[in-house]
Design the sequence.
């Protein structure tokens, strides 16, 4: 890996990257938060301990799993339930779950567990304290849970194909952090080294949930048939991830956190530019790339979905990866700037889905170029929330023309352009998406259509005689939100999604997938245009296996002896 | 009776309450940040916001602490030695003036009869006096910092009187759309089997 610095390739244009269709084609990568977490846990030799597992034969009880790093311990406190099937729902409107969890800051005393047992199982109806960092719940997979318990109880291993069909034994339906339900604010822990990258608390919670769930299924098999029960064979065991159902609640996040979004995208684009700038790919880099490409092909082949749009995308991905593999075999990876040449070919030859998969694959051979960028993913948004009122109104207009040119071209009088309304329902306090024509929702509309809002501001900027932004906003306080946003976006090139988020054809699943890909989720399986199911930590080493596992090489499935 | 909340909960509640009371989104965002700032320093920001949201007091924007506060932090006013200004619920002005002090790298003193706050460019806050949350007052902003003020420390939790919390919650509730059959059906996952 020599001479990488000669003439660096530019990062991609935000007008190309920040489109919904492209964001909705992102894949997990070395910068994904799960991978950042497991790299740290391994590098710092964190230790794990099951401190309590007091669960009866039908699965009711409590358990505590602690993780200890160089400076601090964190404990997953789990409450397990025996839920009748008719009460099991993934929707946020559910009131009972198979298991509920919190990540405790430290190691809980008996009194803490007692207090938590009166709150965590009730989720939104309970309260937690600053000692709790997250609150979460999960449901068993009706498709797989009983089957696996039955197999293990009878002394048999479950069928790999059946495991693959579902991929998890439980799926979380919410993982709350950042002060929700009285938990510690993000600011309380954000100076801790282990939580500098985004969503590390939530990822650690899910990682420990996965360990608990696997212990629980083996425990229940043993309880059912102590004489014959076996545990899962370790390689098979790793094939279970934790499912996650995510709905509209997550969709506004990327719009509401423009600086965070910028930092996520900017780190990824910088990593891509760095790899494309590599002068020569050495044998080891070529070999890692070829291995990951084969495994990505296997991963795509295993990706099942019943959603029509996603089926089409997976099918494009499969043929893209075949074309990519053929191209690499035919042209090789020798010569100057092999990755840049490969990328430029991909831009013309592959669908967006395949292009974005290639972005992730290009990172794999280069941990030393990519992994350090995970330090740039976090954002302190507070200092950027102040409006610079001394900016001239003309300058604000120029920013709008530069960054929101796409929005100024939209005919906002066309009902299709404003067909959707983002609002929050009184019933469950959840973000929802309504049809403007069909429901009387305008009074409740959330500011989640930045293109339209900025275009409205621009129209008034054209007419104003105010010289400064401060004077303009005194006359037009209704544009304060849009002005703040435009000023932020002017400083952070990837902060704004450059697409109409209230258009009739907008797909919320694109927003969900973008975010979930940064989490590190795989096998996005939309259940409608506004609800997606994914798998988290599938194939990852368990806590007790982490020290002996290969470094950060778990996300793509392993090939079997035949190379498939 | 008071209860303890996370600062995120309070910021979110305050932002929604301000919006529910009729403020534009941008101002409501500033309201959320201001109330969070005050409660992190154990000042009664939630009470102050409730006063400001009182419709009768919102009639004249020149007396509205959120409008005046935004104008100040935006840089519309000269920071130095301005003439006294009559402002409702003036406690809400204090965070905006702290942000102004930080932006202009100038120490500022905001005072009214019975209370004075010194705001330093590094974000520090000092207080003298007991009348921290009057319904309204003649407010002065000066660059001369008086002696004998006591430093306020920043914390991570918010204590709010439950009645105030409930009242803000009612205002916040105005931002939520009443349920309809259509909204139930358009929720994520509605009408689909998810039990697998």
Sequence:
């Amino acid at each position: 890996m020599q001479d990488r610095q000669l003439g660096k390739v530019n990062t991609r244009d935000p007008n190309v990257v920040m489109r919904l269709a492209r964001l909705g084609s992102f894949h997990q990568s070395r910068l994904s938060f799960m991978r950042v977490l497991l790299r740290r846990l391994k590098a710092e030799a964190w230790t794990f301990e099951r401190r309590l597992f007091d669960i009866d034969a039908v699965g009711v009880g409590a358990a505590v799993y602690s993780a200890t790093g160089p400076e601090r311990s964190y404990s997953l406190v789990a409450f397990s339930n025996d839920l009748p099937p008719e009460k099991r729902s993934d929707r946020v409107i559910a009131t009972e779950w198979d298991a509920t969890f919190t990540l405790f800051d430290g190691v809980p005393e008996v009194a803490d567990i007692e207090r938590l047992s009166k709150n965590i199982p009730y989720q939104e109806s309970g309260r937690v304290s600053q000692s709790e960092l997250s609150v979460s719940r999960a449901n068993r997979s009706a498709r797989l849970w009983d089957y696996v318990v039955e197999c293990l109880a009878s002394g048999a291993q479950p069928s790999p194909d059946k495991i693959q069909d579902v991929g998890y034994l439980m799926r979380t339906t919410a993982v709350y952090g950042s002060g929700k339900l009285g938990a510690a604010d993000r600011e309380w822990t954000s100076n801790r080294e282990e939580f500098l990258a985004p969503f590390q608390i939530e990822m650690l919670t899910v990682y420990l949930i996965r360990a608990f769930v696997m212990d629980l299924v083996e425990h229940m098999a043993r309880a059912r048939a102590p004489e014959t029960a076996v545990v899962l064979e370790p390689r098979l065991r790793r094939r279970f991830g934790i499912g996650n159902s995510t709905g509209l609640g997550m969709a506004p996040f990327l719009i509401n956190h423009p600086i965070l979004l910028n930092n996520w995208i900017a780190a990824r684009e910088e990593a891509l530019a760095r790899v494309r700038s590599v002068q020569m790919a050495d044998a080891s880099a070529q070999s890692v790339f070829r291995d990951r490409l084969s495994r990505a092909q296997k991963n795509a082949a295993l990706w099942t979905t019943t959603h029509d749009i996603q089926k089409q995308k997976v099918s494009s991905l499969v043929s893209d990866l075949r074309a990519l593999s053929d191209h690499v075999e035919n042209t090789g990876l020798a010569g100057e700037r092999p990755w840049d040449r490969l990328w430029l070919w991909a831009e013309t030859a592959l669908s967006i889905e395949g292009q974005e998969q290639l972005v992730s694959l290009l990172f794999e051979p280069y941990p030393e170029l990519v992994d350090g960028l995970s330090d740039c993913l976090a954002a302190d948004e507070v200092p950027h929330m102040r409006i610079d009122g001394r900016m001239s109104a003309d300058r604000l207009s120029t920013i709008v023309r530069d960054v929101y040119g796409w929005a100024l071209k939209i005919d906002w009088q066309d009902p299709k352009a404003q067909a959707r309304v983002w609002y929050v329902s009184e019933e469950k306090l959840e973000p929802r998406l309504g049809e403007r024509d069909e429901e009387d929702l305008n009074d409740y509309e959330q500011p989640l259509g930045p293109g339209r809002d900025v275009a409205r501001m621009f129209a008034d900027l054209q007419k104003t005689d105010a010289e400064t932004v401060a004077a303009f906003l005194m006359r037009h306080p209704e544009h304060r939100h849009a002005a703040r946003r435009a000023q932020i976006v002017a400083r952070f090139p990837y902060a704004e999604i450059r697409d109409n988020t209230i258009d009739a054809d907008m797909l919320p699943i694109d927003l969900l997938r973008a975010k979930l890909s940064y989490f590190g989720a795989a096998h996005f399986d939309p259940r409608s245009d506004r609800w997606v199911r994914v798998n988290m930590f599938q194939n990852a080493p368990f806590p007790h296996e982490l020290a002996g596992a290969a470094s950060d090489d778990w996300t793509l499935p392993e090939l079997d002896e035949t190379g498939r | 009776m008071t209860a303890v909340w996370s600062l995120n909960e309070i910021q979110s509640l305050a932002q929604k309450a301000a919006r529910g009371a009729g403020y534009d989104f941008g101002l409501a965002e500033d309201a959320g940040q201001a109330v969070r700032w005050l409660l992190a320093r154990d000042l009664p920001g939630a009470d102050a916001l409730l006063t400001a949201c009182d419709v009768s007091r919102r009639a004249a924007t020149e007396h509205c602490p959120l409008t005046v506060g935004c104008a100040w932090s935006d840089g519309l006013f000269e920071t130095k030695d301005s003439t006294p200004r009559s402002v409702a619920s003036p406690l809400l002005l204090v965070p905006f003036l702290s942000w102004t002090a930080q932006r202009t790298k100038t120490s500022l003193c905001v005072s009214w009869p019975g209370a004075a706050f010194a705001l330093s460019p590094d974000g520090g806050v000092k207080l003298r006096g007991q009348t921290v949350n009057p319904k309204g007052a003649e407010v002065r902003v000066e660059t001369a910092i008086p002696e004998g003020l006591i430093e306020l420390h920043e914390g991570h939790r918010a204590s709010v009187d439950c009645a105030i919390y409930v009242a803000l919650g009612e205002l916040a509730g105005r931002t939520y759309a009443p349920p309809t059959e259509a909204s139930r059906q358009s929720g994520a996952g509605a009408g689909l089997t998810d039990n697998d």
Remarks:
- The mean pLDDT of chain A is 94.
- Chain A touches chain B through 71 residues (CB under 8 Å).
- The radius of gyration of chain A is 24 Å.
- The longest strand of chain A covers residues 47-55.
